[in-house]
Design goal:
alpha/beta, Rossmann fold, Alpha-Beta Plaits, 6-stranded mixed beta sheet, 4-stranded antiparallel beta sheet, 13 strands, 29% helix, globular, binds ribulose-5-phosphate, isomerase, ribose-5-phosphate isomerase activity, Ribose5P_isomerase_type_A
């Protein structure tokens, strides 16, 4: 699993803190990334101890990890509600996020937005005053040049995400490409989110605006929790 950001201990504290919110009978959205992985492993230990939950994975990677951890799985088609979603972020400013470092943001946004309570888990390296991390944009492969041009018109500098162990671009779990789009400081997250969503060929972008309910930031000796 891809690892970014700060210390693994801080990520573990954040993940375990969020997993502690899960109660018997809940349906849980299972995020993607190294911090969410700590929450999934902690949840697996609670399942071992007798907790009855069902997980909705947000990626191939989180599905595999949840299976290995012994968490019973379900899908959005089979549940009426997701009680809580626990997911990481590449950057957090107040309650707005940039996500998609693992190219899973399209499914993550569906699950995180549907959840009654969306809990973000992060380490201190992710926290900023203003979002400035490049925004991942998942797009239909045929639309690469037209989406890149539209991102440029919107003031962004797009870079096609290249795979590390394969020649050519990253291909998402949905069979699409990702453009990492540099916008500098993003002062109006709502406007940029709307602009990116309106581009034909964009499947989903990694700006998560107005979705997070709670942020758990693991520190050297504990967890800072912020609630809306
Ligand atoms: O959005 C994501 C995957 O698409 C991840 O949650 C994000 O990249 C953070 O990952 P990590 O916890 O490994 O730093």
């Amino acid at each position: 699993m891809k690892t970014t950001g700060g210390s693994d201990d801080a990520k573990r504290r954040a993940g375990e803190s969020a997993a502690g919110l899960v109660l018997d009978g809940m349906v849980v959205g299972l995020g993607t990334g190294s911090t969410a992985a700590h929450a999934i492993r902690a949840l697996g230990r609670k399942v071992d101890a007798g907790l009855d939950v069902r997980g909705v994975p947000t990626s191939f990677a989180s599905r595999q990890l949840a299976r290995d951890a012994g968490i019973p799985l379900t899908t959005l088609d089979e549940v009426d509600a997701v009680d809580i979603a626990i997911d990481g972020a590449d950057q957090v400013a107040e309650f707005d996020l940039v996500k998609g470092g693992g190219a899973a943001h399209a499914r993550e946004k569906v699950v995180d937005a549907f959840a009654d309570r969306f809990v973000v888990v992060a380490d201190p390296s992710k926290v900023a005053e203003t979002l400035s991390h490049p925004v991942p944009v998942e797009l239909l492969p045929d639309a690469r040049s037209t989406v890149a041009a539209a991102v440029g018109d919107a003031g962004g500098a797009p870079t096609l995400r290249e795979a590390e162990c394969k020649d050519g671009p990253v291909v998402t779990d949905n069979g699409n490409f990702v453009l990492d789009c540099e916008f500098g400081d993003i002062t109006d997250t709502t406007a940029l989110s709307r602009t990116l969503s309106s581009i034909p060929g964009v499947v989903e972008h990694g700006l998560f605006v107005g979705l997070a309910d709670e942020i758990h930031v693991g520190t050297d000796d504990g967890v800072d929790v912020r609630t809306r």
